[in-house]
Amino acid sequence: MEFDDLPLAEFAFPGPLRDSLVAAILSGAKTSTSALLIGYERANEPLPEAGERSAVVDSAGRRVAVIELIEVRVTRLADVDLRHALAEGEGDESVAQWRAGHEAFWHSAEVRAELGDPGFTVDDDTLVVTERFRLVHVV
Fold it and tell me: Using the 8-state DSSP alphabet, how is residue 7 labeled?
């Protein structure tokens, strides 16, 4: 598949958070990510699968890199482990720190609007899609 034909990998929403996540991917610090299973269900999108490649886009919508999924798992939020949290490359040093940052994001007005639920919250049993990936190409 040609670079311009790859599906897009959009991390967070356009803005400072996306820019920092993309920079972490480009530096090799970020090799995993997390998403809510309910987001896939509400958008009626299939879960990603290992082996799939996608083009990482920056806040301006430019394709800046290609990543390939190595592993995709669905797990309870309470079961996300330190290995995954550290591989997210956001500077978290514990699962509790990782979870606090992700809860703040998942409870944001943008995520709640995207889910169509202004009161959405996560708990230990919320299902999370964890993805490990490798950087294949930088533009």
Answer: P
Q: Average pLDDT per run of 10 along the chain, which is 139 residues long?
A: 85 94 96 96 94 96 96 97 94 94 94 93 97 94
Token pair belonging to 103: 């809860």
Is residue 128 within 8 Å of 76, Cβ to Cβ? yes
- Distance CA(97)–CA(82), nearest Å, equals 10
- Euclidean distance between CA atoms 92 and 39, whole angstroms: 24
pLDDT reported for residue 1:
57
The answer to whether 85 touches 95, Cβ cutoff 8 Å, is yes
pLDDT of the residue at 3: 78
| Torsion angles phi and psi, residue 22, rounded to 5 | -65, -40
Q: DSSP of 13-67, one letter per residue?
A: STTHHHHHHHHHHHHT---EEEEEHHHHHHHT-PPP-TT-EEEEE-TT--EEEEE
d(CA 97, CA 2): 38
**Could you say which DSSP state residue 3 is in?**
G
- The per-residue pLDDT for 8 is 93
For residue 97, give both structure tokens: 């720190």
